[in-house]
Records
---
Amino acid sequence: MEANVSSPLNWTSLPTPDPFNIAAHVNATEKPFSVFEGCEHQVEGILFDLTVQCVNVIVGIPANLLVIVILIRNCKNPTTSDMFLGFLAFMDFYFGTMTPLSFLNFYYWHSKKVWSALKFSYGVKDTSGPLFLSCICLDRFVAVLFPVMFGQFKPVKYRLSLTALVLCLTFAYSAAKTVGGLPNFEKVFTGEILATFCWMVLCNVCILWALKKSRGAGKDEMHPMKKKAFNMVLSLNCIIVFNYLPPVALFPFEDYYSPDMFRCYVQPVGFAFLNISSTIQPLVYLSRLEKLPFLSDTCFKKWCNGDSAENNKTHPAENISA
């Protein structure tokens, strides 16, 4: 029974191929969720990931709901990245709601259909987050470095097409993850996270460089609006590095770890850093707003330490505020 209690806690590490534990197929009725059998005495990484999932439930779910409400209320005057932000918040909300179902299914339901739905949600989180963030970075990149082209591609149909492509890729990956048994399937996620991480960092570095050099002739100080955008992109770039660098640095070297080390420590910790983005991303968005709904101006100013006075005078450029 101890194997059953500890092994499924780190559900985010499902990309590990099932052939590591052939016995699970033979005795599937007895241990249907024993993804991490053999980690009973190496639970530190699993507990770390479990703590992150609890944070996503307690903080991430209401934060993402608030982001969705704000975007809906601002739909008459949206920014160019609001569509990507809205879908990203919805996917993170969906992923957070599946965590309580995971506990219920493990301890009470023991349903294979629910387990398949859980695996699908892990695939959604693996794919939708990096891809939608890459779309947001692309939107900022074109807006800052190619403003004329940005004006040509500003109609919503282009963002609808890109969103549809991301959703198709997400659902295809999630369906394949749910079915399982595909050879070297975990390499798909490794390649995706490497490509999207490099792209996001490159876009943000280019934006920072363009804003830094756009002070104008004879000016030592950056324009307040551009300075605010510069600080915002810099902070977001740090968050991207924090969330995505651990899996990027660890997962490509899977073959250099022992199977137990990779399953019990490397994968849980790497996915935990990725999963906490479901909480960090909406909080960063909410912290940049001039006013939060359902919160008085006095409370909001006190929450922001009175730092919103300048924000009321200079609003960030629309193409950077995503």
---
Amino acid sequence: MADGIMSKAATMEIPINRNGNTGTLPEDDGLEQAAKLQWRLDEKDLQQVMVSGPNLNETSIVSGGYGGTAEGIIPTGSIKGPSMHHSSSSSSMTAEDAGRGVAVEKLETVKKWGLNTYKCTKQMISERFGRGSRTVDLELEAQIELLRDTKRKYENVLRLSRALTNHFYNMVQTQHALGDTFADLSQKSPELRDEFGYNAETQKLLCKNGETLLGAINFFVSSINTLVNKTMEDTLMTIKMYENARLEYDAYRSDLEELSLGPRDAAGVARIDAAQQHCQVQKDKYERLRSDVTIKLKFLEENKVKVMHKQLLLFHNAISAYFAGNQQQLEQTLKQFSIKLKPPGADKPSWLEEQ
């Protein structure tokens, strides 16, 4: 290959101009550049073959002489059995079709989401400025507003109960420390042994009763927290879903009403039919969630009455027994509501946990 290129390069005509210099005519410059490019390519191929040896998969069968067109080059890598070529092409086409299907599906999802968001935003703005109509269930709306007001009041009860627990816990700890101090002074002050001893016993008894009362208050706080932040919150989450479904239904209903006022040609009738189908889907969703909210509000009211009846009775009996100094009634109150107190030091970490 290199000898043929050298011979052709040696026999090429070199035009001479009238001054004796090599010419740079336009028609000869193209031939010269083509010859140089082909020389570099063939020289590179020759070096690659000499270094790495021939590769049958990359070898080409050239029909025609030097400078032949690309139509005369047949890559030997393409001379394979028909089944292998068909399987590779079919697998590539299958992967391409699958990727295209996923992309189209995602595009449709984004398109539907964008259209739904636009309709709902438009409906929300129309309602806010008093130009759009909304579906209203007066009885259900009143129950929802009552629940939200009740939740705010119960949250205030929960906040105050926690504050009472913290303050009373600090008082019990102070009484415990004071009782220990009185007991120590009773041992070190013989002249006031009895007086310090009486006060030490009183503070220890108050501390014991205070811990019992703390158990009752903690149970009260835990039950109110469950009622407010779990039971009521779960119902409010369903209410939020219901309100979103109501907004979507009104948005599609308003869209259907606008289309019904338009022209009744073939395209307009098709759009109206599609809008009726979408509106019916949203209406079914809205009615289903409205039924769910009604049922949950009913069960929530029954559960709230039952829980609060028990907890308010516990709170009253425990507070009354403590401040009346009736230790037996206080302990009986905890047994009545099945409240088990933790043994002293149960909340403290063990020696191994402290290390």
---
Amino acid sequence: MRTVNTGAIPTRKTNFTLSIQMDFQLAFNDLNSTKSQEFINTLVLQLQPLCKEAEPQSFEKVQIIKLSNGSVVAASLAEYSYLNNETQIQFVNTELEGVLTDILNNTSNLNKISQAFDNRSVNLKEITFLSPEVNNITDLKPYVDCTQFANYTAVISNGQWQCAGHCKTHPNYCNHHGECLNEIQKGPICRCYESSLQQFYGPQCEFFRRGPAFYGALFGSLAAVFLLLIGIIIAVYAKKKYTGIWKRSNSFNRRLSILEDDFFDFTNSAYHNLGMKDPYLSETYRPHLGNVDTQVQVTTDDPEVLDINP
């Protein structure tokens, strides 16, 4: 946004004279006479596009300021405005003179002027640029008006004067926690950043608070950790309990094994306990089957049946 009162800025002026080979008339001494106005209008109509060609953007006007004798010598004045642009200012101050001189000296352009005056010869006698009143972009500062905007100030940006809002001149106005908006009538306004995790607030987004999602995530994480701890505790407890049962079971089995070995072996137990020798295991009572005659027939009597009934 920029506001420069270009109408008040001084213009760059150049004076040049053309000599037209025709009879001078007394009426030309009065520029307001009919003869003078006809001559002037015809000449301006030819000069205007040529002068504009030199700098189309800043060309203001061309005018005939005097008609003199000597054939007809037309003293002319061309004006060029200064734009709110450093590049254009330097062009008008340093290059425009050469460009305009080349255009007015061009044979083709002089022939066009000649044709407008019944093919009378036309020549460029001299051209002079006055000293510039604007040397660079900083000289335009008095013509910059930002008072119509609230809290706007004039600054140079990219070679131009601009009315910059407070947001541009003070980038940290919203503390980098919000978008700064320049209201023309009210001044800077901060649109603070907000999300489900965090929120900034205040005239300049200077305050901070956590969003609902942050607490949801926090409590959710704590709940997950709590459940994980419970699971670990249960797993440890179950492991210890199972290990204890397994140990007791092994201990019980070992005790049973000892009982079986020590208390349930009744071999020779009676005799051992009485301090006696087992006769069935004695050499005296051990049968010698090798001396048995396997050819001897043995007979037995039938068993008697007792009659128990009287």
---
Amino acid sequence: MRTEKKPTGLCQVEAHGSDRAKRNKKKNHLYSGIHGDTSMGSERVEMRKRQMQVHQEAAASVLQARHSMGNTTAPTNASNACCFCWCCCCSCSCLTVRSEDETIQRSNFEHRTERITNCEESLKPTLEDARSWPISFEKVMKSAAGRSCFRQFLRTEFSEENMMFWLACEELKKETNKTVVEEKVRQIYEDFISILSPKEVSLDSRVREVINHNMLEPTSQTFDDAQQQIYTLMQRDSYPRFMNSTAYTDLLQGLEEPPPPPPPSTEP
């Protein structure tokens, strides 16, 4: 009977190495089958990467334009991509070196938006105005009091960010100063478009791609497609529920009630 010889010396080392490689390959395959292929990443991660790239390119473009106008307060190291990050994912100290004029512009925009919001929320509709809302969603959105009541309803459904985003886009359209427009666009993106924001609105991938493209050259129309999609979402989804809600019914009943009679006169 012929017996098989075991490899010795260098051959034995190579054989052991081959066996070890096979075991590792099998182990890696088993791990991949249990936990999934983490190297590919999810669609959300890929979208985040694209957003980061757009942030960097857009910020670099803005920085170059400002530098050409003599603005020396902004950082000049264009190779440092982290310094061009417009989102909140970066914890480096470069986020604290924004120029003073940008900080003032953002503060003014926030205060202006807050004043408009507070003013609208303090408005009370007339009975005629409230009765016109079931005619169309446009009637609601064209009425400051209607937007206020509808926003309060959205708050109960945890979708108030839709109205906030729509109002922010309306304010953006009124701005003509290019520097202020760029700052407002960046803030709206951070507040409502970024996937890291707690107030992120629901947009499909096509609209997000349009936004990412528009961010390279921000204008007052950067979010037009997104604003229209959110308007349609509110019209088809939230508006019918608002019209059938007890909030709207109670509002009408309160407006229909006659005012209390004046107190009796005490004069002799």
